[in-house]
Structures are given as C-alpha cells and as structure tokens.
Amino acid sequence: MSGVATARTPYPQAAKALLRETLFGAMRDELGHRAWSEITMSDVAGAAGVSRQTIYNEFGTRDEFAQAFVIHEGERFLDVVDASVREHLDDAHAAVGAALETFLRAAGEDPLVRILLSDDGTGGMLPLVTTQGMPVVQWATARLAATIEEGWPQAPTPKVRLLAESLVRLAISYITVPGDSPEGTAAQAGELLGPFIDDALGTDR
Known about the structure:
CATH topology of the largest domain: Tetracycline Repressor, domain 2
Number of domains: 2
Largest sheet: none
CATH class of the largest domain: Mainly Alpha
Number of strands: 0
Strand content: under 5%
Structural class: mainly alpha
Distance between the termini: 56 Å
Radius of gyration: 19 Å
CATH architecture of the largest domain: Orthogonal Bundle
C-alpha cells in the first residue's frame, strides 16, 4: 500500500461548494426562461431542491445571491483570459491584446451574457455589472492583477492594479456596448494602453 496520502476536501467545505454549484445551476436554468426580476428565491430553491431559507443562510440577501452568481459565471471568462496571458508571457502587448480579444469573443458567444445584455432595464440583471457592478469589478481586478503579477513579478503592484482595473472596466464597457469586432477592439485598446503597459510592466518595444 502506498504511503502517499491523497489530500481530501473537508466535508463541510465540499458540501458548501456542492450547494453553491446546485443553486447557481438552478439560477442559470431559471434565467433561460425569464428575467431576473421575475425570478423569486422560492423559484431558485424549488429548482435546486432546497428551502428558500437555505439560500438566504448561504448568501444573505437576494441581491447578494445575484452578485455571487455573476462572479461565479465570470470565473469561466477569467479562466480563458488567464490562459491567454500565460501564452504570451514573452510579449506584454500581445498578452493584453489576446486576453481582451479572448474575453470579448467568449462573452459574445455565451448564452447567459446574451440574456444579460438583452435586459432593457427592467430585467434587473444588467446593473450587476454596470451601475451596481463594483463587487464584480473588484473581484475581476484582483484576479487579473494576480495573473499579471505572476507573469511580470518586477512590475510595481499599484501600476499592475491600475492596468488590471482599466482592462476590466474596458471589457465590461465593450461587452455592454459592443463596437468593433473582438480583434479590432483588442487592437485599439492595445494601441491606447501600449505606453502604460511598457511603463507598468517594465517592457519596451
């Protein structure tokens, strides 16, 4: 018998993660049929097979649940952004351009994002990434800054965070009010941010 022990996730932590995945999955299914403004916590609880109080115990309020859901879904997009950056660690400009292009393309093809963007102001979900989007911006900025710092450890933390937040805010702006193609948008953003990228990350072209 091998003496190497396999690390196991503690049961409470695993149960919490499973509960959240179940609730987020139920929420995703509900959004496929109606707007967030029409969805109650009872609807989500029923679809997930739990009590409404369970959702409140886990998240606090309906709005906090919605914010957590948006961040959970955003993880998928930050995963592809992270991969794009890591593929271009030898070229900071290319890394930023590829990250933005990949994000815009993935978001543009995602059914849930299309539902969110079709909100005419009455659905209640769009403000979670715009007027009420600070928790999402802060989370995405921290995640992207960590990726940049790992790739360019010589970069000063304040400049990395400024670059990361600028990219996050640009990305949110571009997906909510699309303009050029993902390639064109990424190229324009790269041209605009190029000098700051060199300054922040200590690179030069």
